[in-house]
Amino acid sequence: MAKPNPLQQQLLKAGLVKKSKVAEVAREQHVAHHAKATKTPSEIQQEAERARAEKTDRDRALQAERKAHARNAELRAQARQIIEDKKQPRTGELEYRFSTGDAIRTLRVNEDLRKKLAAGVLVIVQLGERFELLPRAAADKVRERAPEWIVLDHGTSTAPAASHSEDDAYYAQFVVPDDLIW
Questions:
Q1: How far is 97 from 85, CA to CA, in rounded Å?
Q2: Cβ neighbours of residue 112 under 8 Å, at least 6 residues apart?
Q3: Could you tell me if 132 and 146 are in contact, meaning their C-beta atoms sit under 8 angstroms apart?
Q4: What are phi and psi of 110, to 5 degrees?
Q5: Among 118, 100, 101, which Cα is nearest to 109's?
Q6: Looking at the predicted structure, is the pLDDT value of residue 146 above 80?
Q7: What is the pLDDT of residue 4?
Q8: pTM for the complete prediction?
Q9: pLDDT given at position 39
Q10: H/E element holding 106?
Q11: CA end-to-end distance (rounded Å), the chain
Q12: Beta-carbon count within 10 A of 23 CB
């Protein structure tokens, strides 16, 4: 038990307090002095914790963005390697025309390559500024990694968008063959 302080002793001698009351107050002071009180965090500490949490979230988002960018670059490199390994040699005197965006491009092919392109056995892919012919299996692998590099693929079914004009309905009866040379 803690010793009573001089003020408590004076009050006790004067008869103003009881000995049990002095002992109780001394016990409370001892417990308060030695007990580990739970302190409420100050506003500064709360603000620092909030800033730390926000920084952690930003760091996680930035890391996820970096990983996605690295994964995208890795997939593009794989697609480029597939194109370089599997491209078909182009020889011939026939011109095979196809559209890319807003331009019409021309490749020189022979009759066999033209038939394969029309049948969907070969696919045209764009690698930088040049165009290459790929077999269907290699083109499917490229499509998984970089689908925007596929320029022309007659093997996939691409249904035209439904339109409601009279002209479109009229011209729908005239089917343009895939092997048309124009």
A1: 24
A2: none
A3: no
A4: -95, 180
A5: 118
A6: yes
A7: 59
A8: 0.57
A9: 60
A10: strand 103-109
A11: 108
A12: 14
Q: What's the token pair of residue 72?
A: 């995208």
92-131 pLDDT, tens digit each: 888 899 888 888 999 999 999 998 988 889 999 998 889 9
pLDDT of 169 reads 82
Place of tokens 């390697």: 81
| pLDDT one-digit tens code per residue, 22-73 | 888 888 888 877 776 556 678 888 899 999 999 999 999 999 999 999 999 9
Helix (DSSP H) and strand (DSSP E) numbers for the chain = 6, 5
At 85-96, the pLDDT tens digits run: 999 988 888 889
Contact, 101 vs 93, CB < 8 A?
no
Length of the chain: 182
**73 φψ region: left (φ > 0), alpha (ψ -120 to 50), beta (else):** alpha
Going 27 to 29 to 34 to 40, the CA torsion angle's sign is positive
Distance between CA atoms of residues 159 and 173, nearest Å: 15
What's the farthest any 2 CA atoms get from each other in the chain?
Answer: 125
Choose among 126, 118, 54: nearest CA to 83: 126
CA nearest neighbour of 124 among 95, 89, 149: 149
Phi, psi dihedral angles at 94 (to 5 degrees): -75, 145
